[in-house]
Automatic annotation (TrEMBL):
Flagellar assembly protein T middle domain mapped to chain residues: 113-255
Name of this chain's protein: Flagellar basal-body protein
InterPro entries, per database record: FlgT_C (IPR032388), FlgT_C_sf (IPR038165), FlgT_M (IPR032386), FlgT_N (IPR032370), FlgT_N_sf (IPR038180)
Gene3D superfamilies with a match to the protein in the record: ABC-type transport auxiliary lipoprotein component, FlgT, C-terminal domain, FlgT, N-terminal domain
Parts forming coiled coils: none
Signal peptide: 1-22
Domain (Flagellar assembly protein T C-terminal) ranges: 299-374
Keywords: Cell projection, Cilium, Flagellum, Signal
Residues of the Flagellar assembly protein T N-terminal domain: 23-109
Organism field: Grimontia sedimenti
Length: 377
C-alpha cells in the first residue's frame, strides 16, 4: 500500500476562554513531513501543546513529562499534578497530504515553577563539530555543525524560560578538559556551558518500484552540559532522528537558506533543537542560579547578573560566603554558608547590577566571589 508524505503545516493559536485560575486554549497543531499518520498525529499534538504552553506562560518543560502518554491515539487525555490537566482532541483531518489537528488544552499556570522565582542561568555554547566529516559529503553540508549551533542559540534566545545565552565560544570545549571550561565560564560570566558533537549524518536510499527512490538521512548528536565553576558534567543526552533528504544527490546545499530549513531534514533538525531546550528546562531549571559579587566597596557592590537575567530594581538578595576547601586527599570541596547580610538591587545594567549592603557595618565581610540568590521566604 502506498504511503502518503505529510507536508508541513504552520501552527496557529486562538484563546477560547479564560478564567482567573485556568484557561482553555484551542490550538491547531503542526503535522511534520513524515510517512506515518500515527507519528504525524503525535508530533502535531506535541506542537499544539508546546504552542499553548508558551502562549499561557506555563512551564514549557511540562511537555516532557506528558510526552510518553501522547503515543496512545485517543481523544481525551487527563493528567493530575501538572499544569496541563486535560487535552481534548477536537478534530483530526487529512487533506491533500496534510494532517491538521485541533485540540482544546486546559492549563492551570502556577507560580511555583522554578523559572518564575529564579534569575535566568547564563549559558555559553560551544560549536557542534561533525565527528566524521565524510558524513557531510552528500550535499556538501560541512558547515551544518556551525549552522545548527546558531539555530540552537536562537531557540534558547526566543523560547527559553530559565536560560540566557551569553554567546558561542570560539574555543574548543570538552568534558575531558574541565580547566578550559571553567576558564571560558569565568571570562563570560556563564553558569553553564553546552557542548555537543554530531555523530551521524549518513544517508540510505529507500528504493521504490513505481516511483522515484527516496533518500533518507540520519541526524544523531550528543550533548554535555558543564558546570562553569567545577568543570563537571551535570547533564548528558543523546538524540537521533531520521528524515527525507529531498535534494539532488550531486547538488550542493546551503544550510543557511530557508529552503534547507523548510525541508523535511531541516524541520527535523529544528524539532531536535527544541527537544534539547525542553530537556534542559526539565532537568536544570530548578538548580539555583548563582550570580557572584564581582565588586565591593563598603556599603555598595556589584553582581554579574543584570536585565537579561531578569534582575529588577528593588530585588532582595541573599548572600552566601564561599567556604570551599581542599580535603586531605587533594579533592576540592565546595561549601557555601548563608550570611546574615542582606542585599538589595539599586541599579540594573544589561548584564550586571549594583547592590546595597544591609546592615552597612557588615559590608567589610563580603568578598569577591561570594554568591547571591534571589531572596525567597
Amino acid at each position: 500500500m502506498r504511503k502518503r508524505i505529510l507536508k508541513p503545516l504552520v501552527a496557529c493559536i486562538a484563546l477560547a476562554s479564560a478564567s482567573v485560575n485556568a484557561a482553555w486554549y484551542e490550538v491547531t497543531g503542526v503535522s511534520t513531513v513524515l510517512e506515518s499518520k500515527e507519528q504525524a498525529r503525535e508530533r502535531a499534538l506535541e506542537d499544539a501543546i508546546y504552542q499553548a504552553l508558551k502562549f499561557s506562560g506555563a512551564d514549557i518543560a511540562g511537555l516532557t513529562s506528558i510526552r510518553p502518554y501522547l503515543k496512545e491515539a485517543k481523544n481525551d487525555y487527563l493528567f493530575s499534578g501538572d499544569e496541563i490537566r486535560h487535552i481534548q482532541v477536537l478534530e483530526t483531518k487529512e487533506k491533500g497530504g496534510v494532517m491538521k489537528l485541533t485540540a482544546r488544552i486546559d492549563i492551570y499556570p502556577t507560580a511555583n515553577a522554578c523559572h518564575k522565582h529564579q534569575y535566568k542561568k547564563g549559558l555559553v555554547m560551544g560549536r557542534f563539530d561533525i565527528v566524521s566529516p565524510q558524513h557531510a559529503a552528500l550535499g556538501g553540508i560541512f558547515q551544518f555543525g556551525d549552522d545548527f549551533t546558531v539555530l540552537l542559540q536562537r531557540q534558547f534566545e526566543t523560547q527559553a524560560q530559565s536560560f540566557v545565552v551569553q554567546g558561542i565560544t570560539p574555543y574548543s570545549i570538552s568534558p575531558t578538559q574541565p580547566d578550559v571550561a571553567t576558564m571560558v565560564a569565568e571570562d563570560t560570566g556563564a553558569q553553564y556551558l553546552l557542548v555537543g558533537t554530531i555523530t551521524d549524518m549518513t544517508a540510505t536510499i529507500d528504493q521504490k518500484v513505481l516511483r522515484k527512490d527516496q533518500t533518507n538521512r540520519q541526524l544523531a548528536l550528543s550533548i554535555d552540559v558543564i558546570d562553569g565553576k567545577s568543570g563537571e558534567v551535570i547533564y548528558q543526552n543523546i538524540y537521533r532522528d531520521i528524515a527525507s533528504w529531498p535534494f539532488e544527490r550531486h547538488s550542493k546545499v546551503d544550510t543557511k537558506t530557508a529552503r534547507f530549513w523548510a525541508s523535511p531534514y531541516g524541520e527535523m533538525a529544528q524539532r531536535m533543537s527544541r527537544n534539547i531546550l525542553l530537556d534542559l528546562e526539565s532537568n536544570l531549571a530548578c538548580r539555583a542560579t548563582t550570580p557572584e559579587i564581582v565588586s565591593i566597596n563598603g556599603q555598595t557592590g556589584q553582581i554579574n547578573a543584570g536585565r537579561i537575567h531578569g534582575v529588577k530594581h528593588g530585588d532582595e538578595l541573599a548572600l552566601w560566603h564561599n567556604a570551599s576547601f581542599t580535603d586531605q586527599y587533594g579533592i576540592h570541596r565546595t561549601q557555601m554558608k548563608k550570611s546574615a547580610i542582606g542585599l538589595s538591587v539599586t541599579r540594573v545594567y544589561e548584564s550586571s547590577a549594583e547592590v546595597a549592603v544591609s546592615p552597612v557595618e557588615l559590608g567589610s565581610s563580603i568578598q569577591i566571589g561570594d554568591l547571591v540568590t534571589k531572596y525567597t521566604q
